[in-house]
Design goal:
Strand order of the largest sheet: 1-6-5-2
Shape: globular
CATH class: Alpha Beta
Bound molecules: zinc ion
Number of helices: 9
Order of helices and strands: HHHEHHEHHEHEEHE
Number of domains: 1
CATH topology: Rossmann fold
Oligomer: single chain
């Protein structure tokens, strides 16, 4: 272990050899920024979710009027999670950043995106465990990484709570949800998740992490499995689709 002086000297030296770049646009950046350049941070922040929003599922309301309150969907049926929060609306710059991260393998975006998601998420209770939405092992092999796990790792650091990525598992190799309707998505993920060690979640406040909340089918199905194992579930997604 290097002492602080030596390690910052080493860092400065490495910065000269390999100047840090913004993982989105590849411009040079200051190392102590949020790992993204100011331009990219600004284009993402246009899509930050603003109040008023649903106090349960986090959906922002179309009108600026009024206070945070439960939305019609959450009033008519309780979701299997306690609260869900998202940092951004899933559009334009946010959509492009998530596509670069997830489909173009820009995993260097994980620290910035994970921290942005954590900073935007305020819950009524502190979580005790962070759990990513799992990928089926077949999909994991194709993609090479689980984007939700990379985000969850950063979120677990931000909240200073442990990460459990092995006890919620995906037992069905489901079809990609992208081109499916809300009803098809629900059917597609039904029974897709299981809990391996039920004791891992019993009595815990679990923070479930995914990249995007679209219809909520995947989030709800994971939440049901966690709730069935005795967890109280809270949800963070980086982005929320509002036109679904
Ligand atoms: Zn940039
Ligand atoms: Zn709601």
């Amino acid at each position: 272990m290097l002492n602080t002086g030596a390690s910052s000297a080493l860092r400065s030296f490495l910065d000269i050899l390999f100047p840090p770049v913004c993982p989105l646009c590849e411009e040079d950046i200051q190392l102590d920024s949020l790992c993204l350049c100011t331009g990219c941070l600004n284009s993402l922040s246009i899509f930050k979710i603003k109040k008023p929003a649903c106090t349960v599922c986090g959906l922002p309301f179309a009108s600026d009027a009024g206070q945070d309150r439960p939305c019609g969907n959450c009033l008519s049926k309780d979701p299997p999670f306690i609260e869900a929060r998202s940092a951004f609306i899933y559009e334009e710059a946010v959509l492009q950043a998530i596509h670069a991260f997830k489909y173009k393998g820009k995993v260097t975006l994980a620290p910035a995106l994970g921290r942005l998601a954590a900073e935007a998420s305020i819950f009524s209770a502190n979580p005790g465990l962070v759990v990513p939405v799992p990928l089926h092992k077949k999909r994991l092999k194709e993609r090479g990484f689980n984007q939700s796990l990379l985000l969850a790792r950063e979120i677990s650091k931000s909240f200073s709570v442990p990460l459990d990525y092995s006890n919620l598992i995906r037992v069905k190799a489901t079809e990609q949800q992208v081109n499916l309707s809300a009803e098809e998505r629900k059917r597609n993920v039904a029974g897709a998740f299981e809990v391996k060690d039920r004791g891992a979640f019993k009595g815990k406040r679990v923070l479930l992490v995914d990249d995007v909340y679209t219809t909520g089918a995947t989030i709800r199905e994971c939440s049901k499995a966690l709730k069935g194992a005795g967890a109280k579930v809270f949800v963070i997604t980086l982005a929320r689709a509002i036109k679904v």
